[in-house]
Design brief:
Layout (H helix, E strand, L loop, with lengths): L13 H26 L5 H18 L4 H15 L1 H7 L12 H21 L21 H19 L11 H11 L3 H15 L3 H22 L2 H16 L5 H23 L5 H6 L9 H17 L5 H13 L30 H28 L6 H12 L1 H6 L4 H18 L2 H17 L1
Helix pairs in contact: 1-2, 1-5, 2-5, 5-13, 5-15, 6-8, 6-9, 8-9, 8-10, 8-16, 8-18, 9-10, 15-16, 16-18
């Protein structure tokens, strides 16, 4: 299947480009004014929500040639959509109520708005106008021996993943089986996806990519679907998309596919919980009193973060330490740090909630306006650089890993946006630089010499 995206020509985008620039400029002026209004006690959601939707539409237009980034933007916007039943319908987003206050959710929504404004600033120039695909670009070369040994390691990780947990779709009590699977889940599931992505990066032979790594991907896909691992399944789906389907669908088709995939995830969740399949039950996960979903839980967790900060219980010094801890956790296991330096785990020191913390709130907590604007803008510019023909292959590897694991670092562990790209770069560097054949040959030669003596 060939690429369906055509390169962007400047005279085709002049009018749309001007509209988007005017929108971003207007939002830059409106954001500080809305923040002042919010700090004075007003509810600004009804003012910035239409601007947020317009930014989403504009970003679809600007990121249409960087489809992994576009999918991540759409995925993040689902969380904002869960705020609409709260503000327009009075819905309750969590079984917890300590920080379930409208002004705290208003702050969460505003942090999303600023974050998307940062995306808009980064996308003032088109990303990937030439219509290149990550899978077809140059990556570091790996010898056949190293690749064979690496495939053996991947096979071991895949086997280990299949031996953990049970099939929730065939269990008598699906939800109980799902909770047991969560307790039994380890980092092996994520590392299997990382290893698969690394292998797909460095594989040149098409038949190896399609049949060997494609086979591993199908096995993992079956395991993650039947075990109910939504976040890990999301990372695997992103890896499959990046290396097999990027730019093979037009933007309209991609968005329809994204909506169908989102509905499929909701359907699988209902099947896991053994609940009805009507629309209301799928959105609320079967509870009519409140929206019991991981989206709503993450939003409530974000409201808790804002509440703890507003009460002065988590100071700017703590937030600075949290920023440093998030950087260090890219290389050092998180268990080495106190919970006060781990996002979003520090919230558990102050209240009880369902878990999770969203990327826009993480940026706002650790760096206020500056980080909430710079991080998304920088991510878009990194993407623009990664798609250039003369860019560093290591930058492409890092961007690929950030895209594959975007659901994880967006929803739960923000430091993953640094950790897994770093792991991918180091791992592929070792694969490309280590001469395993020479090491084995020299060791065998020394062994023969010792025996001859």
């Amino acid at each position: 299947m060939e690429t369906r995206i055509q390169p962007i020509v400047s005279d085709q985008i002049t009018y749309g480009d001007r509209l988007f620039r005017m929108l971003v400029l207007f939002c830059c002026v409106a954001a500080p004014l809305l923040w002042i209004y919010q700090q004075a006690g007003g509810i600004a959601f009804y003012s910035y929500a239409p601007l947020f939707i317009l930014l989403c539409v504009g970003l679809v237009y600007r990121l249409r040639n960087a489809q992994p980034l576009l999918i991540w933007m759409l995925y993040l916007s689902i969380y904002f959509a869960y705020l609409l039943p709260l503000f327009y319908g009075g819905a309750h987003l969590s079984q917890y109520s300590t920080y379930h206050r409208i002004e705290l959710f208003d702050q969460v929504g505003f942090q999303f708005f600023v974050f998307y404004l940062g995306l808009g600033i980064g996308a003032l120039t088109f990303v990937n106008p030439a219509g290149r695909c990550l899978r077809n670009m140059a990556y570091p070369e790996v010898s056949g021996v190293n690749l064979t040994l690496f495939m053996g390691l991947l096979a071991l990780l895949v086997y280990k993943t299949t031996q953990t947990g049970v099939n929730v779709l065939m269990a008598d009590n699906p939800y109980e089986a799902y909770t047991e699977n969560l307790e039994a889940t380890s980092a092996v599931a994520l590392f299997a996806v990382l290893a698969l992505s690394m292998g797909l990066c460095v594989t040149r032979a098409g038949w190896i990519r399609k049949f060997v790594f494609g086979g591993f991907a199908l096995v993992l896909l079956y395991v993650y679907v039947t075990h109910g691992h939504r976040i890990v399944l999301s990372t695997l789906v992103m890896a499959i998309f990046v290396f097999f389907f990027e730019l093979r669908f037009r933007t309209r088709t991609l968005m329809i596919g994204f909506l169908l995939a989102a509905m499929l995830f909701l359907w699988l969740n209902q099947l896991k919980n053994g609940m009805d399949f009507d629309a209301a039950a799928m959105i609320s996960e079967g509870n009519g009193e409140y929206i019991r979903s991981h989206h709503a839980d993450n939003l409530y967790g974000s409201a808790c973060i804002n509440g703890v900060i507003a009460e002065g219980r988590y100071t700017w010094f703590d937030r600075g330490a949290l920023f440093v801890g998030s950087l260090l956790q890219a290389a050092v296991p998180a268990s080495f740090f106190p919970s006060s330096m781990r996002f979003p785990h520090f919230v558990w020191n102050y209240t009880v909630y369902g878990g999770g913390g969203l990327a826009p709130v993480a940026c706002w907590t650790m760096g206020g306006w500056l980080l909430t604007l710079l991080f998304p803008a920088g991510l878009v510019r990194i993407a623009a650089r990664a798609y250039r023909e003369n860019s560093s292959p290591w930058l492409r590897v890092a961007f690929m890993a950030a895209c594959v694991f975007c659901c994880d670092w967006t929803s739960y562990d923000f430091h993953v946006v640094i950790r897994f790209p770093l792991y991918a770069v180091v791992g592929i560097y070792l694969l490309s630089e280590l001469d395993v054949r020479s090491l084995l040959t020299s060791r065998y030669s020394r062994l023969i010499q010792k025996q001859s003596l």
